[in-house]
Amino acid sequence: MTALIPRRERRRGAATAALLALLGASCYQDPVIETLDLRLLPGDGFVATSRVELRDADASDALKQRLARLREDLESRRDPWAQRLAPERCPRARVTEDWRDAEIVELRRDIACPSLDALAPLFADTDVDVFIAREDESVELDVLAGSSTRATRDQRERVVELETPWKDSMAAYVLSCGRLYEHFDAHPERAMPCLLDLFDDSVMKGEVDPGTAPVSEEERRLLEPVETSLGEVLNLMEGDEPGGFSFEELAMLVHDPHPADLRVRVPGAALDVEGFREEEGWLVVPRASPYRAVLALQDRWLEPDLAARLAQHLREHPGDGEPFDLGPFVALPRRYTPPRDAAEVVAAVDVALEPVRECRVRWKPGSAEPIDIAHAPWPALLDEKGP
What we know:
The chain contains twelve helices and 17 strands. It has 387 residues and is α+β, with helices and mostly antiparallel strands. The longest helix is centred in the middle third of the chain and has 34 residues, at 153-186. The protein is globular, with a radius of gyration of 24 Å. The relative contact order is 0.18.
């Protein structure tokens, strides 16, 4: 017989309050999501699909103003994708809008082009170059990323101000959570009660045996620095920076040169793949940001990595009230590989914030007949069943 450990009756610090607010909020996703899918077709053509999605749940006043300006640009076709995927670039084009409560929330553009040579101009105003190389029995696509020029001078200076303490918090989290894991290695039965004590039973769930000893003062001293640093590490998404941006968004503007989340699908068997991440039949260009750095560094020093698991949970369950289940987490084998010092963690974060400079795929064209781009229905061009 087991029972939920009750909520602790103690005054929570600011770091815990902030962390609990994150776990219960609906804002742990980017308020502006831009994607670009490139479907390379049999023959020599392609379909490019751009999406701009706006989310304003729990938006600050500054973020609401920013989203209002973006909506005006989308409605009047003044957004950057209007030029990049302009209908005159290719013989087939369409625009689809999604409105809710009298506001545009998503705008999608599709263009279909008969030649891969039309790919490069789509990126002409960005910090990314795209090249196509044709050989006798293969075709190669290269996506080369330069240095990002997307951030303003003020935004770059602000990121420097925010990033330095955030990196220090990453180091503090790794070192303090490592000490906590060492305590759990010596006393495995204390993992569940300690982690439940760290959080709140409204956002965490787990079970302990009745009669389990309460968290000791010694354990609380181990938990407090984890509480503080973990809250600081995960506090990425608040749109309270100038212009209604979050720290996550500003840092991405500074570090990541790509104008959107880019995915590529090739029409034949891939012979070589470099840089891309393979995901559900797509080749995905990795992005650079603090959130992605947390994920990239998971299990390097701490396994399982509490910060990375929580960050993923927040992204997958934005404000739906689904608590983080500590049961499976506590059951996983734990490992702590101590870094040499805090500077090692900071240096690793710096590397994780660097974009992937080259993504390359070479494929052998299949035997499928080329698609008649001028007359094929959109579902055939998009390889989907719906319109």
